[in-house]
């Protein structure tokens, strides 16, 4: 098979990366994707770096050897923070795209220069995130909120828990709105969180700008594929995405149906 016709691998700790897959499918309609939800080893955000790095390498290795992927998208902020550097070192030959909280666009967009950031504990504590924060020193005040338990509540589609945690975490961040002191821009620094935008809006109102990273990641993926002459040839229909889960296949299947309107068949992944 010509290299350009091979699939693009996408992985996350679970169903959250579907928010990135949605943007990828919109930006690259002729590409074939293989999506791995590592739900059997989630959450990543409350585990140590070793766990996240080991899982990231195991999944990448699996996608390369079993699916012969031509590019990889790490659709997880926590995995990007912990492992992107070592993944780039281990796999220098394939285009590799990670995701990080959209702090820079948020600082530019904010009028009050007060930006909220919701992310996992792992992302916020990472060296990569701390360096990004330091690079924006003086451009805005960033209110950082670790959101323990939120990604897993979204994994389980536990509406009661989601409501409670969203209210608790936004409440802890301070005032939201368009007043001069208020948070007027909120960064969703975990790929699970875009799926609870409606619940978040109940606490923060309709005027706050929400920023997530799916679309920039999709554009960057296109740029890298173009540069490497790896864009797939045009097809009449969008190729089917292959879905795999190390957890409960039905959770991923239901999430794909709910959020992407995709009637997916999901295979259980026992390795890696
Ligand atoms: N979706 C992941 C992220 O973007 C993390 C969720 C988890 O804690 O597993 O950070």
What does this structure look like?
The protein has helices at 18-27, 49-67, 77-90, 103-109, 121-125, 127-135, 150-155, 159-173, 197-204, 214-227, 249-260, and strands at residues 8-12, 33-37, 71-74, 96-97, 114-119, 141-146, 185-188, 209-211, 242-245, 266-268. By secondary structure, it is α/β, with parallel strands linked by helices. The chain folds into two domains: 3-99 and 214-268, 3-Layer(aba) Sandwich (Rossmann fold), CATH 3.40.50.1860; 103-211, Rossmann fold (3-Layer(aba) Sandwich). The strands form two sheets. It has a six-stranded parallel β-sheet with strand order 4-3-1-2-9-10, with helices on both faces. A four-stranded parallel β-sheet has the order 6-5-7-8, with helices on both faces. α1 (18-27) packs across α10 and α8 (159-173) crosses α9 (197-204). The protein starts with 7 loop residues before the first strand and ends with a strand. The structure holds D-glutamic acid. D-glutamic acid binds next to α3.
- State the major sheet: 6 strands, parallel
Strand order of the largest sheet: 4-3-1-2-9-10
Domains counted in the coordinates: how many?
2
Text of the CATH class of the largest domain: Alpha Beta
Q: How many angstroms separate the termini?
A: 24 Å
Q: Which stretches of 5+ consecutive residues score pLDDT under 50?
A: none
Strand-residue proportion: 15-25%
The hetero compounds bound to this protein are:
D-glutamic acid
Q: Which radius of gyration do the C-alpha atoms yield?
A: 18 Å
CATH architecture descriptor name of the largest domain: 3-Layer(aba) Sandwich
Structural class: alpha/beta
Please provide the ordered H/E string of secondary-structure elements.
Answer: EHEHEHEHEHHEHHEHEHEHE
Q: What general outline do the C-alpha atoms trace? A: globular
CATH topology title of the largest domain: Rossmann fold
Total strand segments: 10
Helix coverage percent: 40-55%
Number of helices: 11
The overall pLDDT, averaged over residues, is: 96
